[in-house]
Design brief:
single chain; about 575 residues; alpha/beta; six-stranded antiparallel beta sheet; 18 helices
Length: about 575
């Protein structure tokens, strides 16, 4: 749910800090007070189209920030967070967006800078905004199949997984077959190229870690003079008259005399003796090292040439010797495939035929499941429409394409989501033919159809917050009451915000926010006030009667609130 919202310098809002609760929140107020501006701000926060026109006059930028919380790790935004490398703690998501006067947009998710497209993709899992005339997700026919699958997820999801696994193998096999069936001249050119590359790799006779060993040897050769001088000086410091070993030998002789005179000095004699014999060994090792140390300028040239050869191969075939060898193994396999092209094509065709049969069987099973769930969805939506006094309306999930449409499997355009293409159709008047949902034009009817669909799908979509922006326009009486009950019903499973002019909707609200416009210091600003129970009665009375609020309208407002409470508790 959306818990906190901060808006600064946005339209006629100078600064707003709002806290929200779960359930249904109603936003009411006079026309032009700024109700839709708050929804516009949320729309921008989740990736909507921005404009410098939104920046409050005289300011350099507008800022919007929202804190969302989610209950479980199965929410769609968790997968998005992993995909984009966004860290989440305790199910908290902070979205932030700045719009500057120079047109620059800065978007952040949990402090990480992201593009607007990433913000939009992330925000689409958190907020769903519905306006009366906007074609949102439910009005997009390309998503109707996905909505049907969400509705029947308990059975359909596993069938989609089975189909998708086979489809992945089918796509890979088809791609390999197309590649092998290419123009013979192209294949011959490809064969010549990779045969040359393989010879070049094999002739190089590369060994794993060879480059590292060569670099180590090169460093030693390049520093030969310094190394020789260091070893020689070290040897001379120990060996010779009046040098290190000579003095330590004298020390050892004197300590032997001292130990003979006093046994307390025997441990010291032992330490000195050990040091002498250790240094004597070191002196012999230094002598051997100097005898074997030999500068080889030709070897340095050999190393340089070999490293150049390895680096050239790296530029062509891989970033490391391991990568070059792996590429060599890969093209060796490709050479074998092209050389025995006909037999491989035959094998792939047989495999493709088998996969097509398997795909068709899994697709048919998936299609049958979808048809069963389409019937359940039709019944569920028809029931919702009936509750909204659209009992004459006919809703249908129409299958434009399915397994039954094809006699030959070669003609089936297999897709990653199955064999079906569906679209929601509706007829709102008796005797009228069914038409695509997107062509339903009546405002009042469209509002009720959207609510019916949303009541069903809100339980399956996992959207954190749903916003209805005056979707109740053009209705009254018993229909208005039905819409209020339906919006409240949706708020049981999702946090709902509703801008409304209907007192029935306001009465149903768990939280009632009153938006008003004020003038101070020659500037207009929007403020928001959470209404107390008494203030809520007054505001609903205003919504019923208009300007003048009488005792009768207050009583009517109380009755509406009591009725709403009864409906919610039962």
């Amino acid at each position: 749910m959306l818990q906190e919202l901060t808006i600064r310098n946005f339209a006629i809002i100078d600064e707003l800090n709002l806290s929200f609760e779960k359930g249904l929140t109603a936003l009411t107020g006079e026309t032009g007070a700024g109700k839709s501006i708050i929804i516009d701000a949320i729309h921008l926060l989740v990736g909507g189209r921005g404009s410098v026109e939104f920046i409050r006059h005289g300011e350099k930028k507008a800022e919007i920030e929202g804190l969302f919380t989610i209950k479980n790790n199965e929410h769609p935004c968790v997968e998005r967070a992993r995909e984009f490398g966004i860290e989440m703690e305790d199910g908290m998501i902070v979205l932030h967006r700045d719009i500057s006067v120079n047109g620059k947009n800065v978007c952040r998710i949990n402090g990480k800078l992201v593009t607007i497209s990433v913000l939009r993709e992330f925000g689409s899992t958190l907020v769903d905004i519905h306006g009366q005339h906007e074609h949102q997700e439910l009005m997009n026919e390309s998503l109707h199949l996905q909505l049907l699958d969400q509705f029947g997820k308990s059975e359909i999801e596993k069938a989609i997984e089975n189909y998708s696994e086979i489809y992945k193998n089918y796509e890979q096999t088809l791609s390999r077959l197309k590649k092998l069936s290419e123009n013979e001249q192209q294949m011959a050119h490809r064969l010549d190229l990779i045969q040359f590359q393989l010879r070049e790799i094999q002739n190089a006779d590369l060994q794993l870690n060879e480059d590292e060993q060569l670099l180590d040897e090169k460093r030693k050769l390049m520093n030969f003079e310094r190394l020789f001088d260091s070893l020689k000086t070290s040897f001379e410091a120990l060996q010779g008259e009046q040098r290190g070993l000579d003095w330590i030998s004298l020390l050892m002789t004197q300590m032997e005399t001292a130990a003979e005179l006093n046994k307390e000095y025997e441990p010291m004699l032992e330490s000195v003796s050990n040091c002498f014999y250790t240094l004597e060994d070191i002196t012999r090792n230094l002598s051997d090292a100097l005898d074997h140390l030999e500068f080889e300028p030709d070897r340095l040239n050999e190393i340089e040439n070999r490293l150049n050869e390895i680096n050239q191969l790296k530029r062509k075939y891989g970033q490391s010797i391991q990568g070059i060898l792996e590429y060599g193994a890969k093209i060796e396999e490709e050479i074998e495939t092209i050389t025995n092209r006909e037999s491989h094509i035959e094998k792939l065709q047989k495999r493709l035929s088998t996969l097509q049969k398997d795909l068709f069987l899994e697709g048919k099973q998936l299609s049958d499941l979808r048809r069963r769930w389409a019937k359940r969805l039709t019944d569920a939506i028809s029931n919702e429409l009936k509750q909204l006094y659209m009992d004459k309306t006919i809703f249908e999930v129409k299958f434009h394409q399915s397994a039954e449409n094809y006699l030959d499997m070669q003609d089936i355009p297999f897709r990653k989501d199955g064999l079906d293409s569906v679209e929601f159709y509706i007829s709102t008047n008796p005797g009228e033919p069914l038409k695509p949902l997107v062509k339903v034009a009546s405002g009042g009817e469209l509002s009720r159809i959207m609510l019916a669909l949303k009541t069903i799908f809100s339980k399956h979509q996992g959207i954190t917050s749903i916003i209805f922006d005056e979707v109740d326009t053009g209705v009254s009486g018993r229909v208005a009451q039905a819409i209020a009950e339906k919006i409240q019903q949706i708020s049981v499973d999702s946090q709902v915000f509703c801008i409304s002019h209907l007192p029935q909707v306001a009465a149903m609200a768990d939280t009632h926010l009153f938006i008003k416009k004020e003038t101070a210091g020659g500037r207009t600003r929007t403020s928001v006030q959470q209404l107390s129970p008494e203030e809520k009665i007054t505001e609903i009375g205003r919504m019923i009667s208009g300007v003048e609020i009488t005792d009768v309208t207050k009583e009517h407002a109380k009755e509406l609130i009591e009725l709403a409470y009864t409906i919610k508790t039962t």
